[in-house]
């Protein structure tokens, strides 16, 4: 069973301008996730999907072994669903399964990628896998109703059942399923809890600062 690792990287970024190429801990941001996938034993090929000449040239200069997939014009722009981007790439590769991650996940480790792929390939009723972060704190709906606890009991947060947050680090599905459904995750995903210190996804400036601090201490 072959697995392709996909990293979509568009040139424009709204909240953190130029973040994919921006230097973090002494290197361009995208270097960290590319090296993670290259070091993962379970990944057979790494593909960068982009709409940017600048990103393509930066990837080719730093990682000449990486495959580049140029995003077609109809998938350019900030409002294009990631489902559509992933499905378009899936239709052009020949591997059995596709793992999608982001350049904005610089703390993700190769061993975690390998564990996720191993968990996905285990027998079971799941049809896909996504990484999550376990949260054990008191949540409320907007109207003040408790989500996961009883205010009359006030149990310790460490004793609450965890709620799982999709953390945008790892998505794995059979390639043909992505083509058939147009979705990167199926209807029966396996949740893959991963360490919180790896799960930062850079969406805003504060995330960038936290990730840079953690990378500098690694």
Can you tell me about this structure?
The mean pLDDT is 93. The protein has one domain: Spore Coat Polysaccharide Biosynthesis Protein SpsA, Chain A (Alpha-Beta Complex). Helix 3 crosses helix 5. With 218 residues, it is an alpha/beta fold. 28% of the residues lie in helices and 23% in strands. The longest helix is centred in the C-terminal third of the chain and has 13 residues. The protein is globular and about 60 Å long.
* CATH H-level superfamily: Spore Coat Polysaccharide Biosynthesis Protein SpsA, Chain A
**What is the CATH architecture term?**
Alpha-Beta Complex
Shape: globular
Q: Could you name the CATH class?
A: Alpha Beta
Low-pLDDT runs: none
Quantity of strands, as a count: 9
**H/E element string?**
EEEHEHEHEHEEHEH
Count of structural domains: 1
Mean pLDDT reading: 93
Q: How many strands, which pairing sense, and closed or not: the largest β-sheet?
A: 7 strands, mixed
Query: Structural class of the helices, strands and pairings?
Result: alpha/beta
- Helices, by number, come to 6
Quaternary status: single chain
Summarize the structure.
The protein has 218 residues and is an alpha/beta fold.
């Amino acid at each position: 069973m072959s697995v392709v690792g996909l990293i979509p990287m568009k040139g424009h970024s709204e909240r953190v301008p130029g973040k994919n190429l921006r230097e973090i801990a002494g290197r361009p941001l995208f270097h960290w996730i590319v090296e993670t996938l290259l070091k993962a034993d379970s990944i057979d090929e790494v593909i960068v999907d982009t709409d940017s000449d600048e990103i393509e040239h930066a990837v080719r200069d730093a990682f000449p072994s990486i495959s580049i997939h140029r995003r077609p014009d109809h998938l350019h722009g900030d409002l294009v669903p990631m489902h559509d981007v992933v499905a378009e790439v899936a239709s052009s590769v020949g591997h059995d399964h596709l793992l999608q991650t982001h350049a904005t996940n610089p703390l993700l480790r190769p061993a975690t990628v390998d564990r996720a792929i191993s968990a996905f390939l285990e027998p079971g009723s799941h049809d896909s896998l996504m990484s999550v972060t376990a949260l054990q704190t008191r949540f409320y709906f907007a109207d003040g109703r408790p989500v996961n606890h009883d205010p009359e009991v006030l149990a310790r947060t460490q004793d609450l059942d965890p709620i799982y947050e999709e953390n945008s680090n790892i998505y794995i599905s059979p390639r043909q399923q992505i083509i058939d459904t147009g979705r990167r995750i199926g209807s029966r995903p396996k949740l893959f809890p991963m360490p919180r210190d790896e799960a930062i996804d850079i969406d805003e400036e504060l995330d960038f600062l936290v990730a840079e601090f953690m990378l500098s201490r690694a």
